[in-house]
């Protein structure tokens, strides 16, 4: 059977690689893909925004399962279009994807479902938001531990963590005044800044049954020690000691089950990957956000460990028959992903720089280099995005997985390449 994956990031490369291992899958297409998916699958030159062309390709090629990777086409309703055309598709409808597409909607759903989260206020414009900060923190330069979030999709960059009212004013100006994140800033959320470590719990659901995946820990700030601006994620490891069995049960009971039920009651039944971004506070886990797809880079270490047939799992979820799936099998060894990025990311960066050492890195035991922002140019692999590669490794312990991953990182070179050096250090 043939599979179509929509997207061109590290997540989509990992999905193509793992789905290609299924004995039931004869061919994997990726639209539009990258230089890595061109090796492990077949690229199709269709942008993720061209819904009509994607649907036509799926029909013409008798696709047995379509998997929509990124958030933008999910929010834009690509799953609805594929399903209306008779294509079995894994992913949420546009109505369900609003859980990620609108932070205001998400916070309101959390409140409705009585799910623990930070206190918040939503605003439709910058003037009211500025007035709110001035009223609560009137003194010049006063401490203001808040987080200002653009409402819509901003590629992981629309969340600004503030420590003073000056920083909060600046964040509101960037979102509403400067329109740094475009229409994503039509509304914004200001919420209390929670203290603790972050963890990611992903679950696959068909709207009734929920299969929770091992917890991971993402590293969103750009630089070592969680310094610098937020990014789409600079690395992740799995599992994380932050979430033991008892805590996982608490997350399932207090977060995952309530939101699935709440979405069903709201007539937005959720099918696909439900990603809970959690802050592990002294009062227990609180939801920072929900994503409606596999995380990138969390997907890479998760799928490295998965031993069950991913094709069977995703098909069952798409058909509403997830209850028929056996318990998932996992490699007991932990895994770790280090994101290598372009010079200047998460700001502006230059593309087209030749990447070397990929074969040497992939040849290291228990290592897989997943491509994200890459493309082929004149026979060479070059960088074509901010986050370029997800160097992923396994080991008998988290520290050994880290050792293997960074050993592979050292083999890879291009002008300006960089990465965080402390992925997984929080696990100590």
Automatic annotation (TrEMBL):
EC number(s) per entry: 6.3.4.13
Top EC category: ligase
InterPro entries referenced in this protein's UniProt entry, alphabetically: ATP-grasp, ATP_grasp_subdomain_1, PreATP-grasp_dom_sf, PRibGlycinamid_synth_ATP-grasp, PRibGlycinamide_synth, PRibGlycinamide_synth_C-dom, PRibGlycinamide_synth_C_sf, PRibGlycinamide_synth_CS
Protein's pathway: Purine metabolism; IMP biosynthesis via de novo pathway; N(1)-(5-phospho-D-ribosyl)glycinamide from 5-phospho-alpha-D-ribose 1-diphosphate: step 2/2
GO molecular function, one term: phosphoribosylamine-glycine ligase activity
BP term (GO), one: purine nucleobase biosynthetic process
SMART domains tied to this protein: GARS_A (SM01209), GARS_C (SM01210)
Catalytic activity: 5-phospho-beta-D-ribosylamine + glycine + ATP = N(1)-(5-phospho-beta-D-ribosyl)glycinamide + ADP + phosphate + H(+)
Cofactor list: Mg(2+); Mn(2+)
Keywords: ATP-binding, Ligase, Manganese, Metal-binding, Nucleotide-binding, Purine biosynthesis
Family: Belongs to the GARS family.
Name of the protein: Phosphoribosylamine--glycine ligase
Annotated organism of origin: Rubripirellula amarantea
Name of the gene: purD
